[in-house]
TrEMBL record:
Organism (species): Caballeronia humi
Record-annotated ABC transporter domain positions: 5-234
Name of the protein in its database record: ABC transporter
UniProt entry tagged with the keyword Transport: yes
UniProt-listed Pfam families: ABC_tran
Alphabetical UniProt keywords: ATP-binding, Cell inner membrane, Cell membrane, Membrane, Nucleotide-binding, Transport
Length: 308
Protein backbone atom coordinates (compact mmCIF):
# COMPACT_ATOMS: atom_id res chain seq x y z
CA UNK A 1 0.00 0.00 0.00
CA UNK A 2 1.27 3.49 -0.88
CA UNK A 3 2.69 5.67 1.91
CA UNK A 4 1.04 9.08 2.41
CA UNK A 5 2.99 10.32 5.48
CA UNK A 6 6.66 9.65 6.15
CA UNK A 7 8.18 10.63 9.50
CA UNK A 8 11.97 10.30 9.67
CA UNK A 9 14.15 10.59 12.79
CA UNK A 10 11.72 13.10 14.27
CA UNK A 11 12.70 14.68 17.56
CA UNK A 12 11.33 17.47 19.70
CA UNK A 13 13.14 19.01 22.67
CA UNK A 14 11.56 21.98 24.44
CA UNK A 15 13.45 24.95 25.88
CA UNK A 16 13.15 23.41 29.34
CA UNK A 17 15.21 20.48 28.10
CA UNK A 18 12.28 18.07 28.08
CA UNK A 19 12.59 15.63 25.18
CA UNK A 20 9.03 14.95 24.04
CA UNK A 21 9.91 12.98 20.88
CA UNK A 22 13.00 10.84 20.36
CA UNK A 23 14.05 9.86 16.83
CA UNK A 24 10.65 8.70 15.62
CA UNK A 25 10.38 6.83 12.32
CA UNK A 26 6.86 6.16 11.11
CA UNK A 27 5.02 5.57 7.84
CA UNK A 28 1.27 6.02 7.45
CA UNK A 29 -0.37 4.20 4.53
CA UNK A 30 -2.85 5.87 2.23
CA UNK A 31 -6.43 4.97 3.11
CA UNK A 32 -5.76 3.21 6.40
CA UNK A 33 -7.04 3.86 9.91
CA UNK A 34 -4.00 4.10 12.16
CA UNK A 35 -4.46 4.18 15.93
CA UNK A 36 -1.75 5.68 18.12
CA UNK A 37 -1.91 4.43 21.68
CA UNK A 38 0.07 5.59 24.68
CA UNK A 39 -0.31 6.68 28.30
CA UNK A 40 -0.65 10.33 29.32
CA UNK A 41 2.53 12.24 28.54
CA UNK A 42 3.77 9.61 26.08
CA UNK A 43 4.06 12.11 23.19
CA UNK A 44 0.89 11.39 21.21
CA UNK A 45 -0.33 14.98 20.91
CA UNK A 46 3.19 16.34 20.33
CA UNK A 47 3.69 13.88 17.47
CA UNK A 48 0.37 14.77 15.84
CA UNK A 49 0.98 18.50 16.31
CA UNK A 50 4.41 18.21 14.71
CA UNK A 51 3.12 16.25 11.72
CA UNK A 52 0.39 18.90 11.28
CA UNK A 53 2.94 21.72 11.36
CA UNK A 54 1.72 23.23 14.62
CA UNK A 55 4.87 22.33 16.56
CA UNK A 56 8.28 22.77 14.93
CA UNK A 57 10.54 19.72 15.26
CA UNK A 58 14.02 19.98 16.76
CA UNK A 59 15.30 17.42 14.27
CA UNK A 60 14.12 15.08 11.56
CA UNK A 61 11.50 15.54 8.86
CA UNK A 62 7.84 15.00 8.01
CA UNK A 63 6.70 14.55 4.40
CA UNK A 64 2.98 14.55 3.56
CA UNK A 65 2.30 13.06 0.13
CA UNK A 66 5.56 14.48 -1.21
CA UNK A 67 5.29 17.85 0.58
CA UNK A 68 7.72 18.68 3.39
CA UNK A 69 5.80 20.09 6.35
CA UNK A 70 8.42 22.84 6.86
CA UNK A 71 9.59 23.83 3.36
CA UNK A 72 6.23 23.27 1.66
CA UNK A 73 3.94 24.00 4.59
CA UNK A 74 0.84 25.31 2.79
CA UNK A 75 0.58 22.35 0.41
CA UNK A 76 1.20 19.82 3.17
CA UNK A 77 -1.20 21.43 5.64
CA UNK A 78 -3.95 21.76 3.03
CA UNK A 79 -4.07 17.96 2.84
CA UNK A 80 -4.68 17.63 6.58
CA UNK A 81 -7.76 18.03 8.75
CA UNK A 82 -7.13 18.12 12.49
CA UNK A 83 -9.62 17.56 15.29
CA UNK A 84 -7.84 18.65 18.50
CA UNK A 85 -8.58 17.46 22.02
CA UNK A 86 -9.63 20.89 23.27
CA UNK A 87 -13.09 22.22 22.48
CA UNK A 88 -11.77 25.41 20.90
CA UNK A 89 -14.47 27.07 18.81
CA UNK A 90 -15.76 30.60 18.19
CA UNK A 91 -18.42 30.62 20.91
CA UNK A 92 -20.61 33.36 19.43
CA UNK A 93 -20.47 32.26 15.79
CA UNK A 94 -23.11 30.00 14.28
CA UNK A 95 -22.27 26.45 13.30
CA UNK A 96 -22.65 27.30 9.60
CA UNK A 97 -20.40 30.37 9.83
CA UNK A 98 -17.58 28.74 11.76
CA UNK A 99 -17.43 25.66 9.49
CA UNK A 100 -17.61 27.80 6.32
CA UNK A 101 -14.88 30.10 7.67
CA UNK A 102 -12.59 27.11 8.29
CA UNK A 103 -12.93 26.15 4.62
CA UNK A 104 -11.92 29.66 3.57
CA UNK A 105 -8.79 29.52 5.74
CA UNK A 106 -7.38 26.92 3.35
CA UNK A 107 -8.09 29.07 0.30
CA UNK A 108 -10.98 26.91 -0.86
CA UNK A 109 -13.84 28.67 -2.66
CA UNK A 110 -17.28 28.65 -1.00
CA UNK A 111 -19.12 25.36 -1.43
CA UNK A 112 -22.43 25.40 0.45
CA UNK A 113 -23.32 21.94 -0.86
CA UNK A 114 -20.20 20.42 0.72
CA UNK A 115 -20.76 22.20 4.04
CA UNK A 116 -24.36 20.97 4.04
CA UNK A 117 -23.20 17.40 3.36
CA UNK A 118 -20.66 17.54 6.21
CA UNK A 119 -23.16 18.99 8.68
CA UNK A 120 -25.80 16.41 7.78
CA UNK A 121 -23.30 13.55 8.13
CA UNK A 122 -22.60 14.75 11.68
CA UNK A 123 -26.27 15.32 12.59
CA UNK A 124 -25.56 19.06 12.82
CA UNK A 125 -27.86 20.29 10.06
CA UNK A 126 -30.63 21.10 12.48
CA UNK A 127 -28.15 23.17 14.53
CA UNK A 128 -26.60 25.07 11.62
CA UNK A 129 -27.98 28.45 12.75
CA UNK A 130 -27.26 27.89 16.45
CA UNK A 131 -24.41 29.72 18.12
CA UNK A 132 -21.63 27.42 19.32
CA UNK A 133 -22.04 28.59 22.91
CA UNK A 134 -25.53 27.06 23.03
CA UNK A 135 -24.37 23.55 22.06
CA UNK A 136 -23.64 20.61 24.32
CA UNK A 137 -20.10 19.26 24.66
CA UNK A 138 -20.88 16.40 22.29
CA UNK A 139 -22.26 18.76 19.66
CA UNK A 140 -19.20 21.01 19.99
CA UNK A 141 -17.05 17.95 19.34
CA UNK A 142 -19.04 17.31 16.15
CA UNK A 143 -18.46 20.93 15.09
CA UNK A 144 -14.71 20.42 15.48
CA UNK A 145 -14.90 17.43 13.15
CA UNK A 146 -17.00 19.44 10.68
CA UNK A 147 -14.38 22.21 10.69
CA UNK A 148 -11.63 19.67 10.04
CA UNK A 149 -13.60 18.23 7.08
CA UNK A 150 -14.63 21.59 5.63
CA UNK A 151 -11.72 21.83 3.16
CA UNK A 152 -12.01 18.20 1.96
CA UNK A 153 -8.71 16.91 3.38
CA UNK A 154 -7.10 13.65 2.28
CA UNK A 155 -5.86 13.00 5.82
CA UNK A 156 -7.80 13.38 9.07
CA UNK A 157 -6.16 13.48 12.49
CA UNK A 158 -8.43 12.77 15.45
CA UNK A 159 -6.77 13.56 18.78
CA UNK A 160 -8.87 11.84 21.46
CA UNK A 161 -12.03 12.42 19.37
CA UNK A 162 -14.46 10.77 21.75
CA UNK A 163 -13.06 12.06 25.06
CA UNK A 164 -15.94 13.06 27.30
CA UNK A 165 -18.72 12.03 24.93
CA UNK A 166 -21.43 9.48 25.57
CA UNK A 167 -21.48 5.95 24.19
CA UNK A 168 -24.09 6.72 21.53
CA UNK A 169 -22.11 9.64 20.12
CA UNK A 170 -18.95 7.55 20.20
CA UNK A 171 -20.66 4.89 18.06
CA UNK A 172 -21.87 7.60 15.66
CA UNK A 173 -18.31 8.85 15.28
CA UNK A 174 -17.02 5.36 14.61
CA UNK A 175 -19.59 5.04 11.84
CA UNK A 176 -18.51 8.40 10.40
CA UNK A 177 -14.84 7.36 10.50
CA UNK A 178 -15.64 4.19 8.57
CA UNK A 179 -17.55 6.14 5.92
CA UNK A 180 -14.66 8.60 5.58
CA UNK A 181 -12.22 5.74 5.11
CA UNK A 182 -14.51 4.24 2.49
CA UNK A 183 -14.35 7.55 0.60
CA UNK A 184 -10.53 7.40 0.57
CA UNK A 185 -9.61 9.52 3.60
CA UNK A 186 -6.60 8.39 5.63
CA UNK A 187 -7.35 8.56 9.35
CA UNK A 188 -4.95 8.75 12.28
CA UNK A 189 -6.46 8.72 15.74
CA UNK A 190 -5.11 8.83 19.26
CA UNK A 191 -7.30 7.40 21.95
CA UNK A 192 -7.41 6.33 25.57
CA UNK A 193 -10.26 3.97 24.75
CA UNK A 194 -8.58 0.70 23.88
CA UNK A 195 -11.82 -0.72 22.51
CA UNK A 196 -11.88 2.18 20.05
CA UNK A 197 -8.58 1.09 18.53
CA UNK A 198 -9.60 -2.55 18.64
CA UNK A 199 -12.86 -1.74 16.87
CA UNK A 200 -11.57 0.71 14.26
CA UNK A 201 -7.88 0.42 13.43
CA UNK A 202 -6.13 -1.39 10.61
CA UNK A 203 -2.76 -0.85 12.25
CA UNK A 204 -1.73 0.14 15.74
CA UNK A 205 1.28 2.08 16.99
CA UNK A 206 2.28 2.28 20.63
CA UNK A 207 4.23 5.31 21.86
CA UNK A 208 5.79 5.63 25.30
CA UNK A 209 8.35 8.08 26.63
CA UNK A 210 8.49 9.88 23.27
CA UNK A 211 9.47 6.71 21.38
CA UNK A 212 7.50 4.42 19.09
CA UNK A 213 7.88 1.02 20.70
CA UNK A 214 5.75 -0.95 18.27
CA UNK A 215 3.87 -0.62 14.98
CA UNK A 216 1.90 -3.63 13.83
CA UNK A 217 -1.15 -4.80 11.93
CA UNK A 218 -3.89 -5.14 14.52
CA UNK A 219 -4.66 -8.75 13.70
CA UNK A 220 -0.98 -9.67 13.66
CA UNK A 221 -0.38 -7.88 16.95
CA UNK A 222 -3.18 -9.85 18.55
CA UNK A 223 -1.80 -13.07 17.10
CA UNK A 224 1.82 -12.50 18.11
CA UNK A 225 1.37 -10.97 21.53
CA UNK A 226 -2.04 -12.19 22.59
CA UNK A 227 -2.30 -14.90 25.18
CA UNK A 228 -5.05 -17.41 25.71
CA UNK A 229 -6.28 -18.85 28.95
CA UNK A 230 -7.85 -22.28 29.36
CA UNK A 231 -9.92 -22.34 32.54
CA UNK A 232 -11.23 -25.59 34.02
CA UNK A 233 -14.12 -25.31 36.47
CA UNK A 234 -13.44 -28.13 38.89
CA UNK A 235 -15.95 -30.55 40.40
CA UNK A 236 -14.23 -30.15 43.74
CA UNK A 237 -11.71 -27.64 45.09
CA UNK A 238 -8.06 -28.70 45.06
CA UNK A 239 -5.43 -27.93 47.69
CA UNK A 240 -2.64 -27.77 45.12
CA UNK A 241 -1.82 -28.29 41.45
CA UNK A 242 -1.18 -32.02 40.82
CA UNK A 243 2.50 -32.82 40.22
CA UNK A 244 1.72 -34.21 36.75
CA UNK A 245 0.46 -30.78 35.66
CA UNK A 246 3.30 -28.65 37.06
CA UNK A 247 5.18 -28.83 33.73
CA UNK A 248 2.39 -26.75 32.18
CA UNK A 249 2.66 -23.95 34.74
CA UNK A 250 -0.98 -24.33 35.68
CA UNK A 251 -2.34 -22.20 38.50
CA UNK A 252 -5.20 -22.54 40.94
CA UNK A 253 -7.70 -19.71 41.28
CA UNK A 254 -7.91 -17.90 44.62
CA UNK A 255 -10.88 -19.99 45.71
CA UNK A 256 -9.15 -23.17 44.43
CA UNK A 257 -12.16 -24.14 42.30
CA UNK A 258 -10.51 -23.45 38.93
CA UNK A 259 -7.36 -24.61 37.20
CA UNK A 260 -5.95 -22.04 34.79
CA UNK A 261 -3.52 -22.67 31.94
CA UNK A 262 -2.04 -19.62 30.15
CA UNK A 263 -0.46 -20.12 26.73
CA UNK A 264 0.51 -18.27 23.56
CA UNK A 265 -2.26 -17.94 21.02
CA UNK A 266 -0.10 -19.66 18.38
CA UNK A 267 0.99 -22.61 20.52
CA UNK A 268 0.77 -26.04 18.96
CA UNK A 269 -2.76 -27.44 19.38
CA UNK A 270 -1.16 -30.78 20.25
CA UNK A 271 0.02 -29.32 23.55
CA UNK A 272 -3.58 -28.69 24.64
CA UNK A 273 -4.49 -32.26 23.73
CA UNK A 274 -1.56 -33.55 25.81
CA UNK A 275 -2.57 -31.30 28.72
CA UNK A 276 -6.13 -32.62 28.71
CA UNK A 277 -4.81 -36.19 28.65
CA UNK A 278 -2.57 -35.49 31.66
CA UNK A 279 -5.49 -33.89 33.49
CA UNK A 280 -7.52 -37.05 32.98
CA UNK A 281 -4.61 -39.26 34.05
CA UNK A 282 -4.17 -37.15 37.20
CA UNK A 283 -7.79 -37.89 38.12
CA UNK A 284 -8.81 -34.23 38.02
CA UNK A 285 -12.54 -33.93 37.37
CA UNK A 286 -14.02 -30.77 35.90
CA UNK A 287 -17.55 -29.75 34.98
CA UNK A 288 -16.80 -27.07 32.40
CA UNK A 289 -13.96 -25.41 30.52
CA UNK A 290 -13.59 -22.18 28.60
CA UNK A 291 -10.90 -20.33 26.67
CA UNK A 292 -10.37 -16.57 26.55
CA UNK A 293 -7.87 -14.49 24.57
CA UNK A 294 -6.02 -11.37 25.66
CA UNK A 295 -7.65 -8.12 24.65
CA UNK A 296 -5.77 -5.27 23.04
CA UNK A 297 -5.86 -3.56 26.44
CA UNK A 298 -4.00 -6.46 28.04
CA UNK A 299 -1.35 -6.28 25.30
CA UNK A 300 -1.04 -2.50 25.58
CA UNK A 301 -0.58 -2.57 29.35
CA UNK A 302 2.04 -5.30 29.00
CA UNK A 303 4.01 -3.36 26.37
CA UNK A 304 3.99 -0.11 28.33
CA UNK A 305 5.02 -1.91 31.51
CA UNK A 306 7.98 -3.49 29.70
CA UNK A 307 9.28 -0.11 28.47
CA UNK A 308 8.58 1.88 31.65
Amino acid sequence: MQTIITVSKLGKTYASGFQALKGIDLEIRRGEIFALLGPNGAGKTTLISTICGIVNPSEGSVVVDGHDILTDYRAARAMIGLVPQELTTDAFETVWATVSFSRGLFGKPPNPAHIEKVLKSLSLWGKKDNKIITLSGGMKRRVLIAKALSHEPDILFLDEPTAGVDVELRRDMWQLVRSLQASGVTIILTTHYIEEAEEMADRIGVINGGEIILVEEKAELMRKLGQKKLTLQLDHALDHVPAALEQYGMELSADKTELIYTYDAHDEPGRIIALLRHIDEAGVKFKDLQTTQSSLEDIFVSLVRETA
